[in-house]
From TrEMBL:
Similarity comment: family membership: Belongs to the fatty acid desaturase type 2 family.
The protein's name in its UniProt record: Acyl-ACP desaturase
SUPFAM superfamilies noted in UniProt: Ferritin-like
Organism whose genome encodes this protein: Nocardia macrotermitis
Source organism superkingdom: Bacteria
Annotated InterPro entries: Fatty_acid_desaturase-2, Ferritin-like_SF, RNR-like
GO molecular function term, any single one: stearoyl-[ACP] desaturase activity
Cofactor: Fe(2+)
GO BP: any one term: fatty acid biosynthetic process
Pfam families: FA_desaturase_2
């Protein structure tokens, strides 16, 4: 999907993070993700021991739900291609920035694709789903569009920061209650990856705060104010399902806001008035839940 969406523009170097800053963030992510610590679906787990009858019905439902979310990777990956293109649609400076970011994006996409495969494999191995039925079900949601129609580049990273942290915390709490050790092992791997993805997003948002200061405050506030988990607007029965999975294990995306406050405080020596206002807003969002 490469359509241009109304009201959205490709960010240019004028508002992007300086390329050296993006480069440092990407290098940091890749240094924290050495090949020796990588894992694969084929060998990392004892699939023969997977048994869905050890899970409650709610836990099985949670596994199905997060499989849908992870399986939508082509849609998420496409957002980066549309807003940070690596082709002739952008000028030289923008290209150079986007090319550096691409080193992150492809690695991240490989990891997320592995999450989708691991969860689907679990469903088959544990006796929850037939492979062909599952792939047809996933395709129904997978074909639906995904977009983040943001106006400032920091917003894509602020959105992903909240989403990655929320997902990490959910996997950790689902792992705690999981009756099947094989599922627990899968969730441990996933949570560790999400934690690294979050760290990259946190690093990038911190760098935007340091280099652009108050100019990124309102864009970040907009992301928090309008936050929806991926697929919330398109997936059949999303809200009913989301409430149900929150019953099974703690799920609360506002838990990520405390981390955002910490990133703000690490990025600046003293909070400006707009930053103070943003932190008060984040605290109010947390208090509401
Ligand atoms: Fe993931
Ligand atoms: Fe992730």
């Amino acid at each position: 999907m490469t359509r241009e969406l109304p009201g959205t523009e490709i960010p240019t170097a004028a508002i992007l993070l300086p390329t050296d800053e993006m480069c440092a963030a990407v290098d940091g992510f890749l240094a924290a993700s050495p090949a020796a610590r990588a894992w694969d679906v084929e060998t990392a787990f004892d699939w023969d021991r997977a048994a869905a009858d050890r899970l409650t019905e709610g836990q099985r439902s949670a596994v199905q739900f997060v499989t849908y979310i992870e399986d939508h990777l082509p849609g998420y990956f496409d957002v980066y291609q549309r807003y940070f293109p690596v082709d002739g649609r952008v000028d030289q400076d923008t290209f150079v920035h986007n090319r550096e970011l691409y080193h992150f994006t492809v690695r991240w996409a490989l990891e997320e694709d592995t999450h989708a495969r691991a969860l689907a494999r679990y469903q088959q191995a544990a006796g929850m789903a037939e492979r062909s039925t599952l792939r047809d079900e996933l395709a129904v949601e997978g074909r639906k569009p995904f977009d983040l129609p943001y106006r400032h580049p920091v917003q894509f990273f602020a959105y992903a920061l909240v989403q990655e942290k929320a997902t990490q915390l959910y996997y950790q709490s689902l792992r705690e209650v999981s009756g099947d050790p094989v599922l627990a092992a899968v969730l441990s791997r996933l949570a560790r990856d999400e934690a690294r993805h979050f760290s990259f997003m946190a690093d990038v948002v911190g760098r935007y705060l340091r280099t652009q200061g108050d100019a990124v405050v309102e864009p970040i506030r907009e992301v928090v104010a309008g936050f929806r988990m991926p697929l919330a607007d398109t997936m059949r029965g999303y809200w009913r399902w989301a409430l149900r999975i929150a019953d099974v294990a703690d799920y609360d995306h506002t838990a990520a806001y405390a981390h955002l406050v910490r990133i703000i405080d690490r990025a600046v020596d003293t909070r400006t008035e707009p930053l103070d206002e943003l932190v008060r807003f984040l605290d109010r969002c947390r208090a509401l839940t």
